[in-house]
């Protein structure tokens, strides 16, 4: 006889709105998914009363691994497939700097991961603090490289090395030693190690992949982040030279990062859903008022923004009840699941 296929409720993918998610403190904490995150993703993927699927991207200030590797990890944690085409981390926009600088110091992250990321971005000559310590152990009087660090590091002729720029890609694992090397370079003449500028105005630029002073990790209280390293590096530079340090941070809340995200989202919607018009509204879900809410609000108000970016603050990360956030979100909810429900309901 004839087989009737089971009735499957029809889901359509909406082209009128989209979501963008922060990761730490919203979806993940201390390497584990926040329980509501898995459910929230299922709701976006069609398990909802409206029979609709909603496109989404991820926008984190974190990093330290290739986008590919971060996506694999996040896919496993959230039990769904996430592609680098929908993922931006703090250092992703640094890619564009590879055309401008050849020999660079790359700081931060686990082992050799950040060197690999930088080389993947097209940086031609990547030097790490390990390379400098291996080449001259007097650089850091109290630090001896482990066997693994020694084997990974590349010996260089430091007297002939010109560092054209310093990039802090991820959280430093050795603040003191990394800062010693950063200060050596900042106070040099054109990044030539062993030189000292007379007026301290000849050093190469320094870039941080983001400026989060604190972030939400496994500990019950927030942990110091890259923004704290930036502030202390600026204070050290000032103490050593008597001059302020001009440094640059990427990531949220920078407008450029949200512009980058808009382009990525546009490409993603086009490639995976064949959509050619931009969404009317993008719901951004974050836990850090200073990065996520500030960035979303300022981008929304800027002339670069052609649609509506709507900020939603959750209570699972940096922001906690009882304090007033320094930047006011359009909505405050408990978890990412509530944020998804809030946005979807607003669209109905
Ligand atoms: O180091 C990462 C942290 O500062 C922020 O990550 O995902 O909350 O932007 P995220
Ligand atoms: Mg966060």
Automatic annotation (TrEMBL):
GO terms for cellular component: mitochondrion. One of its GO terms (biological process) is glycerophospholipid biosynthetic process. This is Phosphatidyl synthase. It comes from Cladonia borealis.
